[in-house]
Structures are given as C-alpha cells and as structure tokens.
Amino acid sequence: MTIVVNEDLKAYIDPLTPDEYYALERSLLAEGCRDALVLWGDVLVDGHNRYGICQKHGLPFQTVQNTRFQTLEDVHLWMIDQHLGRRSVSDYQRGVLALRKKEIVAERQARARAEGASEAAASAQPAADGSDEAAAVPPADALASREAIARAARLSSSQVGMIEKIRKQAAPEVEAAVRSGTISINAAAAVASLPVEEQVAAATAGRDELKQAAKRAREAKRRPRDEAASSAGEPGEDELTTLRRRVAELTAENEKLRGQVATLLATR
C-alpha cells in the first residue's frame, strides 16, 4: 500500500524531542503499533511519527480511512483540533494553530460569500451521505475576535497578540527559539521589534543574548514614554524609582525616631 506523507500536513506537528522519540520507538518495538494510522485516501493524516518508526524497523501497522474529509482544508482543521486538545503542545504552538484555524475558516467563509447565499446555505447543511462536513468548520463568529482565539488556544488575549507579532515580525531564528522553548513568548515578541539583523545575531548567540536583546527592546520602548511623561510634567520611570527610594528612606528614619521617643518616655 502506498502512503503519501504531505509535508504541509506534517508541518502542523512539532518534532518529538530525542527522549520522546526514543520512548515511542521503544514502545513500538516492544508492543507493536497498536493504534491505526489515519488516512485520507493515500495521504497520511495522523500517526506520522509512528509511521516513520514502523518504516525504519519494518514493523506492521494498520490504517483507517476518515471518510468525513471532503477537502484538504477539512484535514487541516481536523489536525489543528487534534493538536489543540493535546497537553504536550506548547503555548506558542497552540496560539499558532488557533490563528491558522482562524485563517482557514475566514478563507472558506469568504469563498462561500463569493459563491452566493444559496451555495453558502447549502454548504452549511450535513452532507447527503451522512458525513457531517460542516462539523469541521466553526460558526462564522467562532474565531472572529482575539478573545475567541485565546479561548480556543487556552491562552490570554495578550499572549495571542504577542504570537501574532512574532509570526509577522520575528526572524525565523527567533521563531525557532520560541518554538523550542529557548525563550518565552514575551521575550520573543520584544526581540521581534528589533531590526532583523539584530534579531538573527541574538538568536545565533544563544539564550542569554536573546534575553539581553529582549531587555534592550523593552527599554527602547519604555524610553519614549518616560520622555513624554517628563515633558508633561510627570515623573518618568527613573524619577519614580528615586522617589520610591527616598520615601522608603524617610519611612525608615521616621520609624527610628519613633523608637527613640518611645525609649525616652519609658526611662522617665
């Protein structure tokens, strides 16, 4: 039987770590491939890692057809939902998947509107053969807002905003770093505001330099706010720090004087 590995579909799957790959390989060698690989025609939809290991060691496996899929978009949406429900998927990857789901749904809805109201209404009904084609597509407003995307990805709205920024502005090296967990989503979003050359240099230098780059980016963003506040007669960040320190010193001095007064009164 010929099985086709679609690289576009495979891109939805984060690579296993060496330890995870070894554990899966050891399990398959000991117990065989118990779960069937999911196919759409001859295209592999679910079970890419198991298929690769079975091919490597000549292990037998079973396959099952998912007959609900009508288009490659249906396959994409199904795979996204499968991965959004898995605890092992990182916060960043869940955000990327939810945003990709929004894009697919929006593209499909735009086509339906272009084809006319009657065809759009017909496509919203279950298929005649009982396969619920519409089940793969959320309602029109399901992912219309950042809050809805955040709920689908189990993230905060601010995290979704940062992930959008990373996808649009980050150099591939910085995105690879956040995918691997080398830096946080917050840090990667900060680094993404820097010139591309600086992003690449920081990512090449490693975790510590990426953190320093994120710090520089935040300070550069904060500086205009402080200057604007200062020109408006409001204390900037540095002035506030100085004021807080002075208040703390005066509070400590006041407490010391209170103690001295109490001692003098007690000795009378």
Can you tell me about this structure?
There is one protein chain. The chain has 268 residues and is mainly α. The chain has three domains: 1-66, Conserved hypothetical protein from pyrococcus furiosus pfu- 392566-001, ParB domain; 70-155; 170-251. 65% of the residues lie in helices and 4% in strands. The chain contains 13 helices and three strands, in the order ααββαβαααααααααα. The chain has a three-stranded mixed β-sheet. Strand 1 and strand 2 form a beta hairpin. Helix 4 (72-84) packs antiparallel against helix 5 (91-115). The longest helix has 30 residues, at 237-266. 22% of the residues are buried. The model is unreliable at 127-137 (pLDDT under 50).
Number of contiguous helices: 13
- Approximately what portion of the residues adopt beta-strand conformation? under 5%
Report Rg.
Answer: 28 Å
Helix and strand sequence:
HHEEHEHHHHHHHHHH
State the separation between the terminal residues, measured CA to CA: 102 Å
Largest sheet entry: 3 strands, mixed
Overall 3D form: elongated
Catalogue the unreliable spans: 127-137
Structural class given helices, strands, pairing?
Answer: mainly alpha
Number of strands: 3
Count of all domains: 3
Read across the widest sheet, the strand sequence of neighbours is: 2-1-3
Helix content: 55-70%
**What's the average pLDDT?**
83
